[in-house]
Specification:
The protein is α+β, with helices and mostly antiparallel strands. Helices cover 16% and strands 31% of the residues. The protein contains four helices and 18 strands. It has a nine-stranded antiparallel β-sheet. The protein has a four-stranded antiparallel β-sheet with strand order 11-12-14-15, covered by helices on one side. A three-stranded antiparallel β-sheet has the order 16-17-18, with no helix packed on it. Strand 5 and strand 6 form a beta hairpin. Helix 2 packs antiparallel against helix 3. The radius of gyration is 31 Å and the shape is globular.
């Protein structure tokens, strides 16, 4: 009986250590999990998603001081499926501590998987023998959400204060002569001619659309706010909420964000009062941001390569016609 009790106690402790929590100090706020206990208490792996005060959100991995090296190159899995790669740089002055920034295009899908999965691993691959570090995801969704709420996506730019210009000399050498009012000069026009119109004001500059760095996070924040307003308990995010893909064929990753894959608990059909739920399409930009290109109710989106043929037939008379076709089942068919 004492042996059985001891085994149950150890099992319970190990299970408790696998739960994610969120902590906040004067210097740092982060979601964390130390599946084998804190490093100072004999553990050998801790993962954090958070930020130092005044810095942007990112990943931090703590190993034992004897595992110090210049960088960590690792592979992630979530629920036994590959979920991404990450390179973390050693933190100067902190043995066994490594850090990498959170990049939405690179890490958005990974973080979504860490929030909704059950188990995960981080495998260090830049060693003679790979080191696999498993960890659980119990409580990860709430802890990671709190970290993203507490940390900016990027570190704020330093504030530059311009020095005031020196005041002009209050005693000028000589005062200019006072201006005398004059009658407005009349402009002669030819008889019967229309008076010259005043020059048009220059057109107002157009306001460029502002891109977002993480469309899934922006949309989820909006959904959560409405969910709380309607009395919902929480928002459960499903696997198909954010779907990265190249929709316009420019080689950049675009993003579909499906409102129907984020369910407000206790408030069903928050957005989906019809069989199809609203979905947003964001187009990826070269600078890593996304621009909203479409928002509407649709079920699936497909892309097709359009082939334009310049041809000449009776309907075109003497001019050439341009007709568009698409590939379907190995054949070119007219584009409708």
């Amino acid at each position: 009986m004492p042996l059985l009790f001891a085994l149950l106690t150890l099992a319970g402790a190990a299970s408790a250590q696998e739960r994610w929590d969120f902590y906040r100090t004067d210097e740092r706020q982060a979601a964390r999990n130390c599946p084998f206990g804190p490093i100072e208490a004999g553990g050998y792996f801790c993962i954090e998603i958070g930020c130092d005060t005044g810095d942007g959100i990112g990943f931090l991995i703590r190993l034992t001081p004897r595992e110090s090296q210049a960088r960590l190159e690792g592979l992630w899995t979530v629920d036994y499926r590959q979920a991404g790669e990450l390179v973390l740089e050693a933190v100067p002055g902190e043995a066994g501590v490594f850090r990498a920034p959170y990049l939405p295009r690179r890490d958005g899908v990974l973080v979504a998987g860490l929030k909704r999965g059950n188990v995960a691993t981080f495998t260090i691959i830049n060693r003679p023998i790979r080191a696999n570090r498993p960890f659980g995801l119990n409580g990860s969704s709430d802890a990671i959400d709190r970290a993203f709420a507490a940390c900016p996506l990027e570190a704020p730019a330093p504030l530059v204060v311009a020095e005031p210009a020196p005041a002009p000399d209050p005693t000028p050498e000589s005062e200019p002569p006072a201006a005398t009012p004059s009658e407005p000069e009349e402009v002669a026009t030819a008889p019967g001619a229309e008076p010259e119109a005043a020059p048009e004001a220059p057109p107002e500059p157009s306001v460029a659309q502002v891109g977002v760095s993480d469309p899934a996070f922006e949309t989820l924040t909006e959904i959560r706010a409405l969910c709380r307003e309607r009395g919902g308990a929480m928002v459960e995010v499903q696997h198909g909420f954010a779907r990265p893909r190249d929709l316009n064929g420019d080689g950049l990753e675009d993003m579909e964000v499906d409102f129907g894959e984020a369910e407000c608990v206790n408030v069903p059909y928050l957005y989906c009062d019809i069989p199809v739920c609203p979905t947003r399409i964001y187009l990826g930009q070269p600078d890593g941001s996304y621009l909203l290109a479409y928002e509407g109710d649709y079920e699936t989106a497909t892309t097709e390569t359009v082939v334009t043929l310049s041809m000449k037939d009776e309907s075109c008379t003497e001019r050439r016609c341009a007709r568009r076709f698409v590939w379907r089942e190995g054949r070119l068919v007219p584009f409708e």
